[in-house]
């Protein structure tokens, strides 16, 4: 029988409850799922770029160049201004604080429940850095006195009134972590251990992904995306019994005429490799979020992070000769609202946005996967531009019936997971086409404005990179005519991974 010290808060989980809850209840934690999401490595942002004056030193054709400008006013996705960051100690945490955290998370891992007195002790230690492990705990606790006490502790440690933030009306923990990210509160020594203890209660199969002690992962930003790991062997046609986001491997395809089942106005992600083109319908990608395929004689891994609006294509056979070709899978984890993908063969974790291995054997070998461009277009315009294209079959080749709008506008009102401060030069969910100049400078072209300028007879170019139409979307090339890799994403995602981005914007008179 439990005494008053150890509580067992009610478990809140999502649509996979019947199979998952039996397992998680055994492990004690009752966990909450916000949404089936997508899930990468790490990124750090300490300032929010404010709107700035056009930079006349950078030549922009039929537009202007807007550089990032540091601002003391950090704002979130809805424009709320974060208050000043709280002070915090430096150096190792106190012995008392470490003892309380060890008792709290060790007790959870041992199946003892949530130690109420440890939460009190963590608050009394007065170290704002302890807000990180408490916020992690809050993301999995159901309604309970322990949850209420942890909320009070975070408020006391940070001095923040979260109810001033409009995001709190949707999710208090999202607002809480947004504050911590924006303030760039450092992690305590030992934080990685406590975070792993909590996450492994949700999904023990993540242990292999956490095995690299030198992983280039910012553990503050790593969180559960509401689903479990996809560790099915390559070519498995059925989904996951416990609720993962199942990759689609080597899907059946048809020619363009065989794709007449798909609405001409439906969105596809178009990829061309060695002259061979293929269309991946968006609604199918929203279900699978990952495709392993062969195109133009090359092996491809195509992650689609629905939360950040980013479909990317990686040449998985671009690894060194002594490395087995990766099979990309969705881990079920997120980093600042971006999916964390991993290689099924080596259990190496990849930064989904950059293709760089950040943990595991492939990190040790400095592997970064080569990218090819992805064009977002209507099916009508893609097949008109690429009449020899193929398209994924209506049932994906696995006999599945796909909902044409599986997400139902889930992301229309901004990020639903923590992202922290947001670069204010563009609206959070603005679709941008991101590329890199020859000198490595990241560039973002707002898609609607850029395509409108092109359709009106203008040119869109910046720092030697020019956008050209492809289907109803765009792709990039150098002003010398050489292809330049690029892809679309929401602005908040591109800018948090590439805070030094220069933004192309149309001239007010164009």
Summary, kept brief:
With 510 residues, this protein is of the alpha+beta class.
Note the main sheet: 6 strands, mixed
Could you tell me the radius of gyration in angstroms? 23 Å
Shape: globular
> Which percent band covers the strand fraction?
15-25%
Mean pLDDT: 89
Percent range of helical residues: 10-25%
Count of distinct strands: 30
Q: List unreliable stretches of 5+ residues.
A: 1-48
Structural class by sheet pairing and helices: alpha+beta
Distance between the termini: 73 Å
Individual helix count: 12
Q: How would you describe this structure to a colleague?
A:
This protein is α+β, with helices and mostly antiparallel strands. Among the domains are: 6-31 and 82-217, no CATH class; 224-392, no CATH class. Strands 8, 12, 13, 14, 15 and 20 form a 6-stranded mixed β-sheet that branches. A hairpin with a 4-residue loop joins β27 (473-478) and β28 (483-484). α3 runs parallel beside α5 (145-158) and α4 packs antiparallel against α5.
What tags apply to this protein structure?
12 helices; five-stranded antiparallel β-sheet; single chain; alpha+beta; 510 residues
Ordered list of secondary-structure elements with their pairings:
Layout: E1 6-7, H1 17-26, E2 48-49, E3 60-61, E4 63-66, E5 70-71, H2 95-109, E6 114-115, H3 116-125, H4 131-138, H5 145-158, H6 172-183, H7 191-202, E7 222-224, E8 248-249, E9 253-255, E10 267-273, E11 276-281, H8 282-288, E12 290-295, E13 298-305, E14 310-311, E15 313-315, E16 328-335, E17 338-343, E18 349-351, E19 356-359, H9 361-364, E20 370-372, E21 375-378, H10 379-385, E22 390-392, E23 431-436, E24 442-446, H11 447-455, E25 460-462, E26 465-470, E27 473-478, E28 483-484, E29 487-490, H12 491-497, E30 502-506
Helix pairs in contact: 2-3, 2-7, 3-5, 4-5, 4-6, 4-7
């Amino acid at each position: 029988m439990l005494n008053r010290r150890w509580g067992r808060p009610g478990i809140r989980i999502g649509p996979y409850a019947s199979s998952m809850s039996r397992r998680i209840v055994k492990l004690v934690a009752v966990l909450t799922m916000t949404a089936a999401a997508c899930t990468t490595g790490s990124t750090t942002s300490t300032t929010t770029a404010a709107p700035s004056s056009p930079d006349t030193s950078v030549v922009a054709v039929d537009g202007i160049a807007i550089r990032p400008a540091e601002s003391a006013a950090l704002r979130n996705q809805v424009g709320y201004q974060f208050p000043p960051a709280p002070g915090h100690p430096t150096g190792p945490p106190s012995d008392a604080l470490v003892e309380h955290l060890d008792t709290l998370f060790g007790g959870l891992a041992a199946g003892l429940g949530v130690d109420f007195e440890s939460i009190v002790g963590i608050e009394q230690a007065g170290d704002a850095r302890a807000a990180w492990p408490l916020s992690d705990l809050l993301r999995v606790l159901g309604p309970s006195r322990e949850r209420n006490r942890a909320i009070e502790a975070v408020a006391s440690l940070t001095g923040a009134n979260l109810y001033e933030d409009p995001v709190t009306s949707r999710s208090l923990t999202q607002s809480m972590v947004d504050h911590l990210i924006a303030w760039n509160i450092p992690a305590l020594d030992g934080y990685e251990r406590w975070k792993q203890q909590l996450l492994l209660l949700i999904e023990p199969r993540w242990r292999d992904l956490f095995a690299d002690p030198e992983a280039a992962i910012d553990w503050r930003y790593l969180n559960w995306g509401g689903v479990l790991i996809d560790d099915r062997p390559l070519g498995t046609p059925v989904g996951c019994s416990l609720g993962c986001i199942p990759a689609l491997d080597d899907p059946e395809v048809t020619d363009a005429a065989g794709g007449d089942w798909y609405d001409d106005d439906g969105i596809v992600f178009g990829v061309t490799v060695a002259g061979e083109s293929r269309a991946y319908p968006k609604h199918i990608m929203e279900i699978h979020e990952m495709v392993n395929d062969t195109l133009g004689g090359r092996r491809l891994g195509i992650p689609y992070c629905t939360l950040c609006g980013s479909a990317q294509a990686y040449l998985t056979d671009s690894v060194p000769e002594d490395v087995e070709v990766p099979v990309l899978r969705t881990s079920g984890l997120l980093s600042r609202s971006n999916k964390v993908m991993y290689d099924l063969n080596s259990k190496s974790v990849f930064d989904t946005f950059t293709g760089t291995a950040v943990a595991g054997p492939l990190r040790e070998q400095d592997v970064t996967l080569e990218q090819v461009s992805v064009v977002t277009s209507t099916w009508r315009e893609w097949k008109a531009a690429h009449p020899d294209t193929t398209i994924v079959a209506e049932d994906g080749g696995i006999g599945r019936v796909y909902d044409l709008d599986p997400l139902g506008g889930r992301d229309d009102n901004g990020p639903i997971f923590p992202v922290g401060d947001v670069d204010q030069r563009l609206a959070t969910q603005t679709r941008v086409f991101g590329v890199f100049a020859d000198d490595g400078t990241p560039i973002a072209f707002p898609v609607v404005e850029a395509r409108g300028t092109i359709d009106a007879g203008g040119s869109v170019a910046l720092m030697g990179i020019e956008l050209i139409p492809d289907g109803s979307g765009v792709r990039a090339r150098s002003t010398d005519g050489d292809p330049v890799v690029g892809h679309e994403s929401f602005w908040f995602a591109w800018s948090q991974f590439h805070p030094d981005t220069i933004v192309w914007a149309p001239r007010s008179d164009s």
